[in-house]
């Protein structure tokens, strides 16, 4: 059975201060906070989702922010760099924005593309690249107008402890196409137009350590529940041990760890973030699944207050 994912569904990371997380991804990057909920496995911790106006698959970056999170170390077995894609012609805008907001940054090239590289407040490694493909975001916030806004993921740079095994998985299981090699990086491409360009180190890397400032997992797209079950069967047939299907309210998920140490998830495109609140008020209220609703007061009292706010430099 040949299967082919459209690309990245979402990427989830550990970070520290929740308000700092909101200030960076909404304030600096201009993304929309599309869902404010909790870690279903640790309800004392937020689970925050940022993306385009709808948090569409291929745009959603998610976080478990907690001041109690220990600092991690980026390395093998992780997504090393998360890549964002912006409209063609907006690179200079983003470079100037980083200067204005005093975010340290560098400009580099990979596979004949220019990348603006920087870190968030917790040390997560990020980069911005211009590309034509992918729909424009309709969201604008603070100093980021819609015509310059991040469209979603451009892809990711994976750090593998066993790159040959990870590359075999990307091609033979996930259905990505190998498109080239440059220096120590090998490039793959998925079928979609966002979150579709995956680079990976060719030389094995030493293990990273999970914690604040590191990616927890990368999730890949499945069309719907039927396709999701097909993916689970497909993963098992290739010798991996996926979890049972887990209801995450806004998508269904399965997880497995590939041989290079990276935790993979496969998530459904449906039902999306408007399943429990209206599209025009996404992210404004703490949303809880039914089984946590009786404990709302206790949960809210244990969470630090956060607000989406325009940065002083943008006022």
UniProtKB/TrEMBL annotation:
<protein>
    <submittedName>
        <fullName>Ring-cleaving dioxygenase MhqO</fullName>
    </submittedName>
</protein>
<dbReference type="InterPro" id="IPR037523">
    <property type="entry name" value="VOC_core"/>
</dbReference>
<dbReference type="InterPro" id="IPR052537">
    <property type="entry name" value="Extradiol_RC_dioxygenase"/>
</dbReference>
<dbReference type="InterPro" id="IPR029068">
    <property type="entry name" value="Glyas_Bleomycin-R_OHBP_Dase"/>
</dbReference>
<dbReference type="Pfam" id="PF00903">
    <property type="entry name" value="Glyoxalase"/>
</dbReference>
<dbReference type="InterPro" id="IPR004360">
    <property type="entry name" value="Glyas_Fos-R_dOase_dom"/>
</dbReference>
<keyword id="KW-0223">Dioxygenase</keyword>
<feature type="domain" description="VOC">
    <location>
        <begin position="152"/>
        <end position="269"/>
    </location>
</feature>
<dbReference type="GO" id="GO:0051213">
    <property type="term" value="F:dioxygenase activity"/>
</dbReference>
<feature type="domain" description="VOC">
    <location>
        <begin position="7"/>
        <end position="131"/>
    </location>
</feature>
<keyword id="KW-0560">Oxidoreductase</keyword>
């Amino acid at each position: 059975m040949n299967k082919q994912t459209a690309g990245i569904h979402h990427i989830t990371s550990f970070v520290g201060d929740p308000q700092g997380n909101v200030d960076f991804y909404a304030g600096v990057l201009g993304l929309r906070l599309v869902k404010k909920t909790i870690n279903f496995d640790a309800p004392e911790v937020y689970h925050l989702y940022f993306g385009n106006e709808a948090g569409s698959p291929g745009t959603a970056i998610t976080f478990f922010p907690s001041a109690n999170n220990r600092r991690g170390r980026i390395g093998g077995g992780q997504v090393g760099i998360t890549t964002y894609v912006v409209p063609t012609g907006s690179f200079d805008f983003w470079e100037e924005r980083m200067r204005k907001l005093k975010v340290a940054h560098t400009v580099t090239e990979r596979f004949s593309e220019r990348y603006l590289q920087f870190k968030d407040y917790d040390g997560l490694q990020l980069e911005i690249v211009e590309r034509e493909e992918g729909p424009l975001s309709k969201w604008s916030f603070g100093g980021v107008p819609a015509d310059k806004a991040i469209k979603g993921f451009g892809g990711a740079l994976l750090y593998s402890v066993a790159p040959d095994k990870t590359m075999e998985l990307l091609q033979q299981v996930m259905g990505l196409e190998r498109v080239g090699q440059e220096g120590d990086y090998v490039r793959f491409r998925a079928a979609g137009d966002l979150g579709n360009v995956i680079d990976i180190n060719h030389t094995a890397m030493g293990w990273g350590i999970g914690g604040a400032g590191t990616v927890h997992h990368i999730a890949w797209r499945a069309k719907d529940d039927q396709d999701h079950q097909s993916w689970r069967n497909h993963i098992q047939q290739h010798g991996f041990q996926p979890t049972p299907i887990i209801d995450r309210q806004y998508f269904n998920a399965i997880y497995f760890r590939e041989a290079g140490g990276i935790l993979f998830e496969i998530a459904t495109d449906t039902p999306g973030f408007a399943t429990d609140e209206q599209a025009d008020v996404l992210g404004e209220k703490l949303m809880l699944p039914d089984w946590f609703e009786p404990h709302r007061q206790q949960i809210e009292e244990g969470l630090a207050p956060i607000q989406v706010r325009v940065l002083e430099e943008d006022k």
